[in-house]
Design a protein that fits this description.
Length: 219
């Protein structure tokens, strides 16, 4: 197990795994929907915080390399699984900030806010890395407040996919599946010192995003 962890932590493994993901993803019949609104806002000087559910991030890896010129950032946990995902994200041109709500979260959140202010584009997994599924954690709202950024939820669907027996029913589109990446409307929440107002904003984002969770059809 220790040898396997050393192998998966190497740059060579990350490079090969990233290329394998891109090759696999190139089989998808991919459709991108409603991407221009937030990109136009970004190009006009606005800050954008893209966000999605943990179960849906795989299918966007190849497409998100198209944003590398924006120097975007992404928070990934300090777990061993996170080490692999972080290596793949860096190969796709994303700056990785290591940390999560359970480990190193405060420092990671501060760095993410600084990066978002500077480069104006970041992404966040709203319920990761351990869930619970369908629960939007507070970090995405805090980042948007501190950086004066618009939140843009995005969702992935596929007409043919495998579903994992994991906490979030993580799904992997099958080869040659019809895959859609859909960007929702930009959401801007006014900063507030009132805990009730903050919670209402978190719940509002949660209600907007929950209908896009993908249920395992075999359950």
């Amino acid at each position: 197990m220790a040898n396997l962890r050393r192998i998966t932590a190497t740059e060579l493994f990350h490079t090969l795994f990233y290329r394998l993901i891109c090759l696999y993803s190139s089989t998808f019949k991919l459709t991108i929907e409603d991407e221009n609104e937030w990109k136009d806002y970004y190009k006009s000087g606005g800050r954008i915080l893209l966000c999605t559910w943990h179960q849906q991030f795989f299918a966007v890896i190849k497409h998100f390399q198209n944003y590398r010129s924006f120097k975007p950032s992404l928070m990934i946990s300090k777990s061993s699984d996170g080490e692999i995902i972080a290596g793949v994200a860096e190969k796709s041109g994303w700056h990785v900030v290591r940390g999560s709500s359970s480990r190193g979260g405060k420092a990671a959140l501060k760095e993410m806010i600084g990066r978002l202010i500077e480069t104006r584009l970041a992404a966040h997994i709203v319920d990761g890395p351990k869930g619970p599924a369908g629960y939007v954690k507070a970090g995405v709202i805090r980042m948007a407040h501190a950086a004066n950024a618009a939140i843009v939820p995005f969702y992935v669907s596929a007409d043919n996919a495998w579903y994992f027996n994991s906490w979030d029913s993580f799904f992997l589109p099958k080869p040659f599946a019809r895959v859609s990446i859909y960007f929702g409307k930009m959401l801007q929440f006014s900063p507030s010192e009132d805990p009730a107002a903050f919670e209402n904003q978190r719940l509002s984002l949660e209600r907007i995003m929950q209908p896009a969770l993908r249920m395992n059809p075999q359950k």
